[in-house]
Amino acid sequence: MPCGLFFSSYEKDDAIFQTTWLKAWMALLFVILLTFPLYADQANALLGLNLTNMLNLIFIYIVGAHGLNLLTGYTGQISLGHGAFMGVGAYTAGILANHGWPFYLALPAAGLMAAAVGMVFGLPSLRLRGLYLAIATMAAQFILDYAMRNWESLTGGSAGLIVPSAGLQSLGLDFTFDSDRSFYYLALLFAVLATLYLKNLTRTRTGRAFVAVRDRYLAAEVIGVNLFKYRIMSFGISSFMVGIAGGLWAFYITIISDEHFTMWLSVQYLAMIIVGGLGHVLGGIFGAIFFVLLPELLRIPAEALTDVYPNIFGIFASLREMVFGLIVILFLIFEPDGLAARWHTVRAYWKLWPFSY
């Protein structure tokens, strides 16, 4: 039997699912995700967790992480303002929903508004790169955060904005996504669509132009790649995706305030794609899973030490940011390519076994 994969055409070599084995595993995973709500209660009781809520958050974060990964991982543009762009999407969706817009119109409008704002703040990308661009996007975070907090007539200020649950009443269907279980399928749908979109985008001419701008922007410009066009385009698409994530967040939480979209959220998103893997589609998925599970993993030793140290939960809460920062530093030192690269290494090992050397 041949060891490894051998393709006879570029089409087969560039296929998303290259083997029958991989297709079977993906089909099994899809069936598990679709049927999860049927046995969610038993799983929650067994593990002592609200897995449906955690998966909903993971799906929402996946959409936003894919957007930032497109901008930073594929185009090489660092952004520290995506938490605020997510807030623009959330407030847009909430305001439109309160004015009678159905969620299936308010959600894309949230993405478009976030894309417009992101492209405006992405204009400095023509002249700035690296740390200087990061500082410019950080300014966007502060400006938008100030607007969300002080534009009380529009956003409700620090008191927050109440958002109605997403529903299908305008289509003549008496159905509302007002529970973890019902919202699960909506969040899963957008996570799958965002993943497929990012995977297919990276295989197009536009996606290859993004990578060329990231790797050798001068060489890309020499061969005819319009740097300004593709940098602004990456900001627009990235902000659109994180705006959709913000809209989903608004319809899921149903009450939003400026405290949800601070600089800490922007740093979290950046940490997600660093830990998950920059420039990998799986990076956003692994990163979102990791950072949603991390607080639960920290809670286990905290509960075990409650009898000895009654204030242990307060201590762990104050150390959360330190733990997140330490994890990012350790990944940058020992696994700079993230969990996605490690997954590809493990997969390649077993694919070529017993000749994996």
Short précis:
This protein is mainly alpha-helical and 357 residues long. It contains 16 helices and two strands. The protein has two domains: 19-48, no CATH class; 49-352, ABC transporter involved in vitamin B12 uptake, BtuC.
Can you walk me through this structure?
- The protein is an all-alpha fold and 357 residues long.
- The chain has two domains: 19-48, no CATH class; 49-352, ABC transporter involved in vitamin B12 uptake, BtuC (Orthogonal Bundle).
- 71% of the residues lie in helices and 1% in strands.
- The chain is built from 16 helices and two strands.
- The protein has a two-stranded antiparallel ribbon.
- Helix 4 (51-74) crosses helix 10, helix 13 crosses helix 15 (312-334) and helix 14 (281-304) crosses helix 16.
- The longest helix is centred in the C-terminal third of the chain and has 27 residues, at 227-253.
- 38% of the residues are buried.
- The mean pLDDT is 85.
Q: Quick one: overall form?
A: globular
Low-pLDDT runs of 5+ residues are none
Query: What distance separates the N and C termini?
Result: 17 Å
Provide the residue-averaged pLDDT.
85
- Tell me the total number of β-strands: 2
Major sheet size, sense and barrel closure: 2 strands, antiparallel
Which structural class matches the secondary elements?
mainly alpha
Oligomer: single chain
| Helical fraction | over 70%
List the helices and strands and how they pair.
Blueprint: H1 10-13, H2 20-35, H3 40-47, H4 51-74, H5 82-98, H6 103-121, H7 130-150, H8 152-155, E1 161-162, H9 180-201, H10 205-215, H11 217-222, H12 227-253, E2 255-256, H13 263-276, H14 281-304, H15 312-334, H16 338-352
Helix pairs in contact: 4-9, 4-10, 4-12, 4-13, 4-14, 5-6, 5-7, 5-12, 6-12, 10-12, 13-14, 13-15, 13-16, 14-15, 14-16
